[in-house]
Specification:
The chain contains 6 helices and 11 strands. By secondary structure, it is an alpha/beta fold. It has a single domain, classed as Stationary-phase Survival Protein Sure Homolog, Chain: A. The chain starts with a strand and ends with a helix. It is an enzyme of class 3 (hydrolase).
Length: 261
């Protein structure tokens, strides 16, 4: 199996090393793992692509490349340049430092990379490690992902879990904020919503008197509805959420037709 890996935390992020180990275990001794990751952190860029300017790419080692672009750029670079138009069997994105559950999904570059791979017709999975008081101070805060990542990916490689729709399925996986030994299992979930969490801007004045705005996130341990991703994570489960890039609200189409003149 040939696997392309990327992330949004950058080429030197510890989560990418965790993903590299997961990918090698999944690919097997005869497989290949290729890395194309952002040269610098790209958290929060979503599905952004560098459409109006070129992306510099550099080889750092065997099958290891850094691109000065977004995670989606890295997938495109991997597919059309590094792998020379021969697609991999699987694209893995992550392991993100922090959860990409609930509303975080919409901002995530980790998700953006998996989405781009799906749009390119390649199976893809995004993986993120939820942080919390039970794991953030561990010697390996990615312990849950390290211990359970390969098994989770292998479980999702079942042929019946993929399709040939125009907007292909991809999967959003979040590992719970617990020790690896405390993970309760895997759960199929929907995308949740934290009612009391919003991104916001906070003003700060620099020493030179200039005003800057910092974007801040809200509480990450707010409960979401039962059966959703963050709720499963906070209960100790690995959440697995099937997704598509199609944003249409199909239930609303008929209502809209009835209301339009």
């Amino acid at each position: 199996m040939r696997i392309l890996i990327t992330n949004d935390d950058g080429i030197n992020a510890p989560g990418l090393q965790v993903l590299n180990e997961i990918a090698h275990e999944v690919a097997g001794p005869d497989g290949e793992v290729w890395t194309v990751a952002p040269a610098f952190e790209q958290s929060g860029v979503g599905h952004c692509i560098s459409y109006t300017h070129p992306t510099m790419i550099a080889q750092l080692g065997k099958r290891r490349f850094a691109a000065e672009g977004s995670p989606a750029d890295c997938v495109i670079a991997g597919l059309y340049d590094v792998l020379d138009g021969t697609p991999p069997d699987l694209v893995l994105s992550g392991v993100n430092r922090g959860n990409n559950a609930a509303e975080n999904t919409l901002y995530s570059g980790t998700i953006g990379a998996a989405m781009e791979a799906a749009l390119q017709g390649v199976k893809s999975i995004a993986l993120s490690q939820f942080y919390g008081p039970d794991n953030k101070d561990l010697e390996d805060p990615f312990e849950a992902a390290t211990m359970h990542g390969a098994a989770t990916v292998k479980a999702l490689l079942n042929d019946s879990l993929w399709d040939d729709e125009n907007y292909k399925l991809f999967y959003n996986v979040n590992f719970p904020p617990v020790r690896g030994a405390d993970v309760k299992g895997m759960a199929a979930t929907t995308q949740g919503f934290r009612l009391n969490t919003r991104f916001r801007a906070e003003a700060q004045t620099s020493p030179t008197g200039r005003k800057f705005l910092w974007v801040r996130g809200g509480p990450q341990h707010e409960p979401t509805a039962p059966g959703t991703d963050a709720a499963a994570n906070l209960d100790g489960y690995i959440s697995i959420t099937p997704m598509r890039a199609d944003l249409t609200d199909y239930e609303m189409v008929a209502t809209l037709e009835d209301l339009l003149p």
